[in-house]
Design a protein that fits this description.
Length: 376
């Protein structure tokens, strides 16, 4: 069960003290307090864990600091969407909003290689009004002899260039908890010219110790990739690990599933799950067409598969697109063959915008049909 307190309830107020005292003394129930900082107000949520079936909802509703009480299922307690649960989704980080209505594109390098390439990439993004990018510094590779990323050595110049070009958020995969500290120390030293969204790669979706470490900090939001060989439920539970440790600023990323059935794509594109994740949870949903498709093949209509699947995800309501671009893909150290070219960026962004607008119109269209169907 979840008790949501009146907005901006002070934790040193008498109402809060009385409420917490009552809840903490319920037999067989443990309480967990969760603070949610929204753009306009701070919300305190109190999770009641244990045998909550016997609890009387009215009694809890009557407590002085309580505004609402929701019965939640055991599934995805914090990030899930429960019955009668109208809590807001998403968060704002470094002035960029991530929720189930917004749309942000993170075009950039799969792996940081040279300062020149990073510079050209960021310049191009700035010229097209982009505030976000992807930049891999720590690369988990299948082959131990492959390039593993420049690691913390490249952080100072990547962050400086981002700041110079007005980039607000960089999606950056980390593979070990020590990388959080490396990123934080570097950003702090530079005066925080940009922000970072910590990315958990598909190979680490169930690295529970890494998830817990990332969840214990709330400075940086998290982009969690769906595990490529596990069920959706298992991946959503992985996201809940982050929230259960205190960090609910999580974006969930679909990136294709590993199966021969996906051939000739690198992975089986799973963007049909965009609306499913939005129904089951309150997380914004990201799609990664690059790691799903894995090539620059195009259809007879002249449109790259990468662009077709992006359109499919966005028209279904995706809130974020994580995509590989490179100024010179033939020189890229990782995933060059699937990178989009800088000259393809304007049309790509326009296509995404078209699909996002169409998604909004589709909501109106189907909302109307539903109302008519109900005789409204
Ligand atoms: C990536 O985005 O660079 C990446 C390695 O993705 P994934 O973890 O989905 O394979
Ligand atoms: Mn890659």
């Amino acid at each position: 069960m979840l008790a949501i307190l009146h907005p901006d309830t002070q934790l040193d107020s008498e109402e809060y003290r009385q409420t917490l005292h009552f809840l903490e003394n319920l037999p067989g129930i443990s309480v967990r307090v969760h603070e949610v900082q929204g753009a306009k107000q701070r919300l305190t949520e109190i999770y009641l864990l244990g045998d909550t079936k016997s609890l009387n909802q009215e009694d809890i509703m009557a407590l002085p600091a309580v505004e609402r009480v929701i019965r939640i299922s055991d599934e995805y307690r914090i990030l899930g969407r429960h019955r009668d649960d109208h809590r807001l989704s998403g968060f704002t980080y470094n002035d960029v909003t991530f929720d189930q209505d917004s749309l942000n594109v993170f075009a950039g390098l799969c792996a940081v290689d040279t300062p020149d390439h990073v510079e050209i990439m960021m310049q191009t993004l700035e010229a097209h009004g982009q505030l976000c990018t992807r930049m891999g510094a720590y690369k988990p590779r299948t082959n131990p002899y492959s390039f593993q990323g420049h690691g913390k050595g490249c952080l100072p110049w990547v962050f400086e260039k981002a700041g110079k070009h007005g980039i607000k958020v960089i999606a950056m995969e980390i593979t070990h908890e020590s990388h959080i500290e490396e990123i934080d120390t570097c950003l702090e030293k530079l005066g925080r010219p940009t922000g970072v969204m910590l990315q958990v790669g598909t190979r680490n979706t169930q690295n529970f110790e890494l998830l817990k470490a990332i969840g214990r900090q709330s400075t940086y939001p998290v982009l969690l990739k769906r595990g490529f060989g596990i069920t959706l439920d298992e991946s959503l539970n992985a996201a809940e690990y982050l929230a259960s440790e205190g960090n609910a600023k999580v974006v969930f990323c679909l990136r294709g599933m590993k199966t021969e059935a996906g051939n000739p794509h690198r992975n089986m594109v799973d963007f049909a799950h965009v609306p499913v994740v939005k129904r089951l949870t309150r997380m914004p949903v990201c799609i990664d067409p690059s790691h799903s498709v894995g090539s620059r093949e195009h259809a007879p209509d002249g449109i790259l598969d990468l662009m077709h699947v992006t359109a499919q995800g966005v028209i279904a309501g995706a809130n974020m697109v994580l995509v590989d671009f490179h100024p010179m893909p033939e020189k890229a150290l990782v995933d060059g063959p699937q990178a989009l070219l800088l000259e393809e960026l304007p049309a790509y962004l326009e296509d995404i915008q078209l699909c996002h607008e169409t998604w909004k119109k589709r909501q109106v269209l189907h909302g109307k049909i539903q109302l008519n169907g109900l005789g409204g």
